[in-house]
Amino acid sequence: MSYMGLSRCAEIVAALQASGMRADLPAAVVSAAHTVHQREARGTLAGLPALLQDKGLSSPAILVIGEVAAMQAAAIVATIADDEQALRDQPSGPGHRRLAG
């Protein structure tokens, strides 16, 4: 997953494919999540740069790559929020980084 990665989307996709990710892996973009302006688009990893251009999506946005991208946008955003909360709840100390919140 990448936050605010739209300007580097083609570069991110190329690097992921070069590292072995399948071109047909599900991918999604959620723009302006949790606002009245929220927009989303789904496709494949290989088609992600063209999808962004065709749909005219802009930052702030989240790039979601992998099977989770097949979920509805609301579920994706809720999952991300749950993950962030879990990180905040972890004990801090050596080897731990606590998120502000």
Question: Would you mind describing this structure in some detail?
Answer:
The chain has 101 residues and is of the alpha+beta class. The protein has a single domain (2-89), classed as Methyltransferase, Cobalt-precorrin-4 Transmethylase, Domain 2. The chain is built from three helices and four strands; from the N terminus they run βαββαβα. The chain has helices spanning 9-18, 48-55, 73-89, and strands spanning 2-3, 26-31, 39-44, 61-65. The protein has a four-stranded antiparallel sheet, sandwiched between helices. The longest helix is centred in the last third of the chain and has 17 residues, at 73-89.
CATH architecture: 2-Layer Sandwich
- The CATH topology label is Methyltransferase, Cobalt-precorrin-4 Transmethylase, Domain 2
Q: Major sheet, described briefly?
A: 4 strands, antiparallel
Q: Please, how many helices?
A: 3
What is the CA-based Rg, rounded?
Answer: 15 Å
Overall mean pLDDT score?
Answer: 79
The CATH superfamily is identified as Tetrapyrrole methylase, C-terminal domain
Total domain modules? 1
Binned strand content:
15-25%
Précis, in short:
The protein is of the alpha+beta class.
Describe the protein's topology.
Blueprint: E1 2-3, H1 9-18, E2 26-31, E3 39-44, H2 48-55, E4 61-65, H3 73-89
Antiparallel strand pairs: 1-4, 2-3, 2-4
